[in-house]
Design goal:
The protein is globular and about 55 Å long. The protein has a four-stranded antiparallel sheet. About 25% of the residues lie in helices and about 20% in strands. The chain contains four helices and four strands; from the N terminus they run H-H-H-E-E-E-E-H.
């Protein structure tokens, strides 16, 4: 989405029917949420910011952030769950983040990949209700000594 039509998108996403996907240009998962807020405001409706954030927190479950790297490749750098609201803030929790520490190959391409933060996303509960089982090991939950990443 690129403009005020974001308001229509949010309303459609919050009608009780599961399943939506969209793209937005942003520099991080947190910026993606802020960008969606701004785009809703571009619709010209007099909607309180808190109401917009509540709609976003209800409609958006997951942000998959793809970054264009210095080597020109595009890589998934964050898979971030939207967990809800705390006060006036939309809360986010990274489930996977790109491991830049893997370095680069001889051609200057990043070797890293998204790695689990050790936090099992809440959406896995909904998946279980639908009969989709995901091992906690996928999220690094079974790893000893892995400190969970902090929400933003």
């Amino acid at each position: 989405v690129r403009g005020g039509e974001c308001l229509d998108m949010l309303q459609a996403m919050n009608t009780g029917h599961d399943g939506s996907i969209s793209t937005v240009h942003a520099n991080s998962p947190r910026d993606a949420i802020a960008r969606l807020e701004t785009l809703v405001l571009m619709a010209g409706m007099d909607i309180p910011l808190r109401a917009i954030r509540e709609q976003l927190a209800s409609a958006v479950n997951l942000v998959v952030h793809i970054t264009r790297m210095r080597d020109g490749s595009r890589r998934v750098t964050h898979i971030t769950e939207v967990q809800g609201m705390e006060g006036d803030i939309v809360t986010l929790q990274d489930a996977f983040v790109f491991d830049y520490s893997a370095g680069m190959d001889a051609n200057g391409r990043f070797l890293g990949k998204p790695v689990p933060t050790g936090v099992r996303p809440r959406f896995t509960e909904r998946f279980a209700e639908l009969g989709i089982e995901i091992s906690p090991a996928v999220f690094g939950a079974s790893l000893i000594g892995v400190a969970p990443a902090r929400g933003r």
